[in-house]
Specification:
CATH class of the largest domain: Alpha Beta
Largest sheet: 6 strands, mixed
Mean pLDDT: 82
Organism: Allonocardiopsis opalescens
Strand order of the largest sheet: 7-8-9-5-10-11
Pfam family, one: ABC_tran
Distance between the termini: 56 Å
Number of domains: 2
Radius of gyration: 24 Å
CATH superfamily of the largest domain: P-loop containing nucleotide triphosphate hydrolases
Protein name: Energy-coupling factor transport system ATP-binding protein
Low-confidence stretches: 1-63, 574-578
InterPro entries: AAA+_ATPase, ABC_transporter-like_ATP-bd, ABC_transporter-like_CS, ABC_transpr_CbiO/EcfA_su, ECF_ABC_transporter_ATP-bd, P-loop_NTPase
Keywords: ATP-binding, Nucleotide-binding, Transport
Number of strands: 20
Shape: globular
CATH topology of the largest domain: Rossmann fold
Number of helices: 15
């Protein structure tokens, strides 16, 4: 795309007629480069590509009414390199305009099904593997409808394709040959609808995870698709942002009658948006199907036992071992951090994303960083983990952590040798894929302890223990990038715990409970509570109110790059679900 053009739609430079796979906005490349000069689009070189016309439902004033029809018969999918099927024997019909909530335990194949409906599975698509049975959207193979289906996936990093916010939202509209005069009004409207207040020129690299998710949602909603697929669309959003997106999705479904298929673990927040619930069985087909009331009334107890988030049956926090809070291990003092350069800025240096932040991580204490998207939580976590240096201020080890590091303990944390830092500070990134370095789950867990000099036998013992503890034994031989979102998160926690000869003294986690069902949520909290009881310091950025209530000892509230409140908390206990 011509990055200098802000008053007209721009072209991304690909002018052949092969499919362009931008997850969430699967579109076809424009056929004629002269569109970059603002001319009317020419016709497609092949019939059916749709590059020379405005597809139904893509104009600003001609939004399509009526949704797509979905039909699956005996459908199954097995990822490449796996022995087990992700889904098999799925029989399902979704009528136009229906709003369906797709449920199932972590790893049940919910995201796989959404990708298949978006046409992103198959030999020429993002996910390859073995397919059986029949899957049709409006009577066509899903791959034939790429560009008329909107998908918002779990990870916004994989869906942003341009350097600036406005260009990113315009990408799908341009590739669908929306008339030039309509593109920018639709871009502005979509950004406003999702509460993205930065405007078109904001650098996508300068956005927080939650802000990126809002931008991806804007890019998808701008297409006004007849089939809208949402895979945990609010998982990275703060509560106000999540509520805004839910309201927007509800209004879109009402006004366009689009068919909606939604995956969301926190069912209570979205059950009012849907008129039907479909529950998937891991490795199988449809376990339950009906209205929300009927499904939860007839199957609520059984679904809760399988890990499904059933309203009124939230998981109880596991009993926590006694904790013995001690002295500080890491302290951040007066930390400022300058953000990434913004190509949309007219002049001046990048803005500060941290402004004089202070934080202390203490032995036997769970510290939660909370606040709206863009508040600086992930940036502060990165400094506390020693993975980056503040522009001003200091992050240093304290107490027994500084003593254990010897001479290096007197340096700022970011200047520690990499192997020493990895042995004492474990990190779980917001985007799990950022820390995967091998081609199988088992090798991922072997990597850290073997590099730390642990023997082969002890390494295998530890790996087997973590695989079992975090429910990853069944996927030990598969590629980490093919895991579900919840499985990736658990693997990233496991890799942080296996990085040295023993568990790290400090564990830093960004949204640790993302994508978890009730069973894995409770098991993860139990694991973290055990580390806290051993005197480890646990720090986490989270929007998970349940985690905050059950596990946090200290809350650091952030807004606008500043720490606005630091307060002790008393974790609460709840009765187990009945």
């Amino acid at each position: 795309m011509d990055e200098r053009a802000h008053d007209r739609p721009a072209v991304d430079g690909r002018v052949d007629d092969r499919p362009v796979h931008a997850p969430g906005r699967t579109v076809r490349a424009p056929d004629r480069p002269e569109r970059a000069r603002g001319r009317p689009p020419g016709g497609s070189r092949r019939a059916g590509h749709g590059a020379g016309r405005v597809p139904e439902g893509c104009g600003v004033t001609a939004t399509a009414r009526g949704g797509a029809r979905i039909e699956l018969s005996g459908w199954g999918w097995r990822h490449s390199g796996r022995a087990e099927w992700a889904l098999r024997g799925v029989d399902l019909v979704v009528e136009p305009g229906e709003r369906v909530l797709l449920l199932g335990a972590s790893g049940a194949g919910k995201s796989t099904l959404l990708h298949a409906l978006a046409g992103l599975t198959g030999p020429d698509a993002a996910l390859t593997g073995d397919e059986e049975g029949r899957l049709r959207v409006d009577g066509e193979p899903a791959a034939a409808r790429r560009g008329r289906t909107g998908l918002v996936g779990q990870d916004p990093e994989t869906q942003l394709v341009m350097a600036r916010a406005g260009d990113d939202v315009a990408f799908g509209l341009e590739n669908l040959a929306v008339p030039p005069g309509e593109i920018w009004p639709r871009v502005d409207a979509a950004l406003a609808e999702v509460g993205f207040g930065y405007g078109r020129l904001r650098s996508t690299a300068a956005l927080s995870g939650g802000e990126k998710q809002r931008l991806v949602i804007a890019g998808t909603l701008a297409l006004r698709p007849r089939l809208l697929l949402l895979d945990e669309p609010t998982a990275n959003l703060d509560p106000p942002g999540a509520a805004l997106v839910r309201e927007l999705v509800a209004e879109l479904a009402r006004s366009t009658e689009a068919t909606l298929v939604l995956v969301e673990h926190r069912v209570a927040d979205v059950v009012g948006l849907v008129d039907r619930v479909v529950v998937l069985e891991p490795g199988g087909g449809v376990l339950a199907d009906g209205s929300p009331g009927a499904v939860f009334s007839a199957h609520g107890a059984g679904l809760a036992a399988r890990g499904v988030w059933v309203p009124g049956r939230e998981p109880a926090a596991p009993p926590s071992p006694p904790r013995a809070p001690g002295g500080p291990l890491v302290a951040a003092s007066g930390c400022w951090k300058r953000g990434a350069p913004d190509p949309g800025a007219l002049a001046g240096p990048p803005a500060d994303v941290l402004r004089g932040a202070d934080a202390v991580l203490a032995e036997g204490t769970a510290t939660a960083l909370t606040g709206p998207n863009g508040a600086g939580k992930s940036t502060l976590l990165t400094l506390l983990a020693g993975l980056d240096r503040p522009t001003r201020g200091e992050v240093a080890a304290r107490g027994r952590l500084a003593e254990a590091a010897g001479k290096a303990g007197r340096r700022p944390l970011a200047r520690w040798p990499a192997r020493l830092l990895a042995a004492h500070v474990g990190t779980v990134f917001q985007h799990a894929e950022d820390q995967f370095v091998t081609s199988t789950v088992r090798d991922e867990l072997r990597f850290g302890p073997l590099r730390a000099g642990l023997g082969a036998a002890e390494t295998e013992r530890r790996v087997d223990e973590l695989l079992q503890r975090l429910r990853l034994t069944g996927v030990a031989g598969v590629h980490p990038f093919t895991l579900s979102g919840g499985e990736k998160r658990r693997l990233s926690v496991a890799t942080a715990l296996s990085s040295g000869e023993r568990s790290p003294d400090v564990l830093v986690l960004d949204e640790p409970t993302f994508g978890q069902d009730t069973r894995t949520w409770a098991e993860l909290v139990e694991l973290l509570a055990g580390l806290r009881a051993q005197g480890r310091a646990v720090a986490m950025a989270t929007h998970d109110e349940l985690l905050l209530a059950h596990f946090a000892d200290v809350e650091i509230r952030m807004d606008g790059g500043r720490v606005v409140r630091t307060a002790e908390r008393t974790p609460t206990a709840t009765e187990p679900p009945r």
